[in-house]
Design goal:
4-stranded antiparallel sheet, single chain, 4-stranded parallel sheet, 3 domains, alpha/beta, Rossmann fold
């Protein structure tokens, strides 16, 4: 089945053709960790989690990278307000992010890099941009990208440089040559986080980190770059400028952007009192309800969140759950033989449902149509169920057909939509969320774990199985589970 995606870069629906199939490289912009994750974050996380699952179902080997911005003006401001080190703030909200994403069933990315772990690589990237004439350092210790040097600037957002200049201005205290130029390196003020660099003590600008992460963990050209619609300009536009100025190659072949979330018709804001956190949602509803709400709207359309919609999504969730649970009740009824002169018609309905489901996802990832196809199937199943409960009996042929439909519901909606998983700590929700939030000190050192995994692999190759087993056991004590797969050893937290 041909997969077609709307490419923000071209503004058209295009056939998806990976650069090096079956490998697919995806990067999405992650969170700036200065506050709780909210429903807007949740939408983007769910969209790309499901899209990744769908690609894997199609047989692609997905390498997925999503970052953390752990040094930023907002983080620094929060640290000053609380009289704490900025890293303590970042660690706290990374820990909370992991708790939130675990509850709503988001699988971790293959790599989840942090800015503060990549300062040398970022500095090296900036130096290369200066050497190629695309960036300049100022006497004050700042480094800016010169937008006028990159001829394709504006191609993603479909904005001309002249129009952008007309609406731009230089803020007081800025020392850049052109109001459109953006910071690659920022001189740190007294009391702010700072790293040594050729231009003095400072820290990276926001737009440079993602380019560095992509280059290091995925390569110069990736298949898909994703994120929210609000990131198209200036963030993603600035990423393209830096990356393609250096490589003269396409930075990403396809750009996917999910629509924004508004709350009761208004932009979400704490000042308006309509700021909805993920924790607030999953302490009130089963996490599948949020998934159903997100998937019931096309990913590129805006999503207006209000609690009545969550109640509607809850009803859909309950219909799905009830259909699954009713199978056990149907098996308890008296059965009888019935000759319909062929297979039960429900088999054909399942086939049509599955075809409709995958067709919808293959046409620009229309999750709302895919979900509707299964709700139609459940309606047909309910007709059979209602008759059986009324008659207090069911034909063996109908029971087998219902079971066949249930397997389709469970397997497809679980494996691709991430529904019906019910793996702790996601359920029961209200009991699990009573536990203490994970302390910042418990945030894992991923590079150290990866190193231990490599050491264990070398021990196994040398048949030093006692050492390999000891590494596995010690990691398990720390809550890290190793899984040996045909594609290497994977690890996850429990």
């Amino acid at each position: 089945m041909t997969l077609k995606l709307f490419n923000t870069l071209s503004g058209k629906l295009e056939e998806f053709v990976p650069l090096n199939p079956p490998e697919v490289k995806i990067y999405t912009c992650g969170v700036t960790v200065y506050d709780e994750s909210h429903v807007g974050h949740g939408r983007s996380l769910i969209v790309f989690d499901v899209f990744r699952r769908f690609l894997e179902h199609l047989g692609y080997q997905v390498r997925f990278v999503r970052n953390f911005t752990d040094v930023d003006d907002k983080i620094i401001t929060r640290a000053k307000e609380e009289c704490k080190d900025f890293m303590e703030i970042a660690d706290r909200y990374i820990a909370r992010y992991y708790e939130d994403t675990q509850f709503i069933g988001i699988r971790p990315a293959n790599v989840e890099p942090r800015v503060t772990d990549h300062i040398p690589e970022i500095i090296e990237l900036i130096q290369k941009l200066i050497e190629k004439g695309f960036a300049y350092a100022t006497p004050e210790g700042n480094v800016y990208f010169s937008v006028e040097k990159f001829k394709d600037y504006g191609k993603l957002s479909k904005r001309s440089v002249d129009e952008l200049i007309a609406g731009a201005r230089v803020e007081p205290g800025e020392d850049k040559k052109n109001p459109l130029d953006f910071a690659l390196w920022k001189r740190s003020k007294a009391g702010e986080p700072a790293w040594d660099s050729p231009w003095g003590k400072g820290r990276p600008g926001w737009h440079t980190e993602c380019v560095c992460f992509v280059f290091k963990h995925l390569g110069e050209t990736i298949d898909i770059h994703g994120g929210g619609l609000d990131l198209i300009f200036p963030h993603h536009e600035n990423e393209i400028a830096q990356a393609e100025a250096l490589t003269e190659k396409p930075f990403a072949r396809y750009w996917m952007h999910n629509g924004l979330v508004i709350v009761n018709g208004q932009k979400m804001s704490k000042s308006l009192g309509n700021f909805v956190t993920l924790k607030e949602i999953y302490t009130k509803y089963h996490p599948d309800v949020l998934r159903i709400l997100v998937l019931s709207v096309h990913y590129r359309s805006p999503l207006d969140f209000f609690w009545e919609k969550m109640e509607n999504a809850k009803k859909v969730y309950e219909r799905i759950r009830q259909a699954v649970e009713d199978y056990e009740k149907l098996k308890e009824l008296k059965t009888y033989e019935e000759n319909l002169g062929g297979v039960h018609p429900l088999y054909e309905f399942v086939k049509e449902t599955e075809e409709g489901f995958f067709k919808a996802l293959s046409e620009d990832f229309k999750t709302q149509e895919a979900l509707a196809s299964y709700m139609n199937l459940i309606s047909e199943m309910n007709k059979l169920r209602n008759k059986a409960f009324k008659d207090k009996k069911i034909s063996s042929q109908a029971l087998e057909a219902y079971g066949y439909a249930i397997n389709s519901v469970k397997n497809t909606l679980r494996n691709i939509f991430g529904l019906l998983e019910d793996v702790l700590p996601r359920c029961p929700v209200k009991e699990v969320v009573k536990k203490e939030l994970e302390p910042a000190s418990a945030v894992v050192d991923k590079e150290l774990i990866n190193l231990l995994v490599e050491v264990r692999q070398m021990a196994r190759e040398k048949k030093l199985f006692d050492i390999a087993d000891k590494i596995r056991a010690r990691l398990k004590e720390k809550g890290i589970i190793l899984e040996d797969t045909p594609f290497g050893t994977k690890w996850k937290r429990v």
